[in-house]
Amino acid sequence: MLDGVSRVILSANFHIKHDPVSDIVNYQLIGYTYSAVNVICSVPLSCPPLFLSANFWFPCCHLYRICCQPINSANVSGASSTASDDAVPQPVVLIDQDSDHDATIVQLSFGDRLGALLDTMKALKDLGLDVTKGSVATHSAVIETKFHIMRLGRKVEDPDMIEKIRLTIINNLLQYHPESSEKLAMGEVFGIKPPEEKVDVDVATHVIVQDDGPERSMLDIETADRPGLLLEITKIIADVNINVGSAEIDTEGLVAKDKFHVSYRGAKLDSTLSQVLVNCLRYYLRRPETDEDSY
């Protein structure tokens, strides 16, 4: 019963913690779905024995405190951004252009602090994009949220739009989880707290080209992240007359780790062209720091 109206609980998620000393099991209801509406809620609740695995049964539990509101990035699993005493996890934004032929896959994680990301989906829709499918999975206490995104019924292929997607997601993360600013390069300008550790662009920049079959090569780039980085990389690749077939754009905290399937006139890059591409990328990716130091 909620606000005098009976609701059918369709699904629920719990955090369960067992204290081996006192033998007390603590249950925490972190969210449930009723009438096709997602809420985060901690309400008086009596639940029957909860079957967790083939060997474990837990007794009846009672949860207290009433607090119901729509889920978004500000409302994290179990609590909002109140986990200030905990170490801030590393935010990861992955844009995958290779796994799905028809859609761009965006994967986002920030430890266990993300909710249903309704605000992020709205921001992507405001870019003229359609979120066709979504999923949430937990791996080693890290919640990974995936969106399948299309534009006009097709995969997003415009590098400018892909960079807008990346920056939009990071901006939303900074807005609803301000503690993430100390782990993101854009936290330097837009966050409440700049990163404590700075990435040395000369040390962090690695560019490798490897064969990936007779028709394409794999370009791996790792460098310090910054706004507009993807556009810089794609422009450099285009200036060398190399084609990009697909890409995986991975932002891990302060570092960008990107992969591109590239080719030249329908074939993999030869050793000479590979070296030209590597040298160009290394020069331009390291140049911003060099220019600043020269003044």
Label the structural class: alpha+beta
User: How many structural domains in the coordinates?
Assistant: 3
Instruction: Write out the strand line-up for the largest beta sheet, numbering strands in chain order.
Output: 11-12-10-9-15-16-14-13
The CATH topology annotation of the largest domain reads as Alpha-Beta Plaits
Number of helices: 6
Count the E strands: 16
Largest beta-sheet details = 8 strands, antiparallel
Beta-strand percent range = 25-35%
**General form:** globular
CATH level 1 class label of the largest domain: Alpha Beta
Average pLDDT, rounded to a whole number, is 74
* Cα-to-Cα separation, first versus last residue: 67 Å
The low-confidence parts are 1-85, 289-295
CATH architect. name of the largest domain: 2-Layer Sandwich
Radius of gyration: 23 Å
Q: What's the order of the H and E elements?
A: EEEEEEEEEEHEEHHHEEHEEH
What percent of the residues sit in helical stretches (DSSP H or I)? Answer: 10-25%
